[in-house]
Design a protein that fits this description.
alpha+beta; 7-stranded antiparallel beta sheet; 32% helix
Amino acid sequence: MSGPADGTGAPGSASTSPTADEGRLQRVHPLSPLLRGGIVVVAMLVAGGRQLLEGGTLDWPLLGVGAVVVAVVAWGALSWWVMRFRIGTQTLLIESGILVRRSRRIRLDRVQAVEVQQPFLARLLGMAELAIETAGSGTEATLAYLRVDHARRLRAELLERAAAAGSPSRSGAAPAPGSAPVAVTDGAGGEPGLHQAPVDPLGDRVVAPEPAPELLHQVPPGRLMLSQLVRTAPLVMVVLGLVGVTVMLALDQPMGITVLVPAAIAVASVVGNGFVGQYNFRLSRTSQRLAVHAGLFDVRSQSIPVGRIQGVVVHEPLVWRWLGWCEVKVTVAGVEQHSDDSARLTTTLLPVIDRGAGVRLTGSVLGDSDLVGAPLQPGPPAARWLDPLGWRIQAVGVGADLLATRRGVLDLRTDVAPRHKVQSVGLRQGPVQRRLGLATLHIHLPPGPVDPEARHRQADEVWALALSASAAVAPAPGVPGDAP
């Protein structure tokens, strides 16, 4: 039996100690083994049934494969039976394992996000899974599968208890006398969770109604499809494919189709992934969290703690700039970053929106920050020797509480970082830059899509920017260490 690195006791102690956590042990849904291996089982049943309907008999290879399938299903059923979990005030306990028993205790104060995922087969049966992410560990645990309403209730409960466990005033404290759990919402579509409300002496609950989550933005399917079609990457693929076909026809070579088909497949893949992953995208807000919900086949719901947003990047592809559109992404501290953006909602705040509305909405959800409060200053003329196409676009701005940079030619991006979120700054100066009296400033944030960089600026200006940015990360008086 083994326990997690961040556990708070000996392995398995939570299941035997009555004071370790309260609550009862629960199991996932009995259909979980079927959903995990459902495709294989269905394929075998279809193959065997077809053979019998055609008047044949089940031959030995098919019987052998069927026996393997039965064994796999039996193993899955036994795994389901021994897998149990319990949500306490401080930890989440998960017990699993047949031959080797495993007991994991996940500290709730380390939970960063709880995502409700609905793969296609699970969605058909009204099921979902919970993916629990902790600081520095990515996806720490997955509870699969649960009824959708049950999964949403558990997510709300986990978020509520994680917030309570992370509060210095409530961490480790028992519920106050005269209180009882009542249903509240967690900002992800109105799913109920647990909250403490006062109870009168007769036992009647006095519950203040929780406001419904505020819907901030919803992307229409038509605009989403058009936005994916006119992104820079698909357009470049189409242009290259057409150029290749034109060259082949001009040379009287019957190879045009071999160039056009790969380009068409690539475009369909990029556009299809973006459309399917962000279909019916909705952004909602409560007092402490943002919630995003999207997906055509695999429906996902994700909560984003506003206080952990480290920066914002506004993307404007070439055609989007003509249409007045933009895309807004964020970096969230402590959440693992994935390469597949269509399968990961945490970094996408607004997949497509009018630029003015996107800037205002992003500023409002980040605490009424003025994203345009840092006026951008263009680069010096000497920068054209290093970046002849983009030197006029590159800009940097320093506001009272924000740092902003802009760069890009085909895909214009504006990175904005609150000054108090900056971790460190770095200055780079190559030999050509030294010759021209230029330098580049890097502003370091946690890993994510936001990457502020002021390229090819005057060296004295870069030093002034570095000192100004580092003032936001200097240690407090009495703390050992020097400012960056």
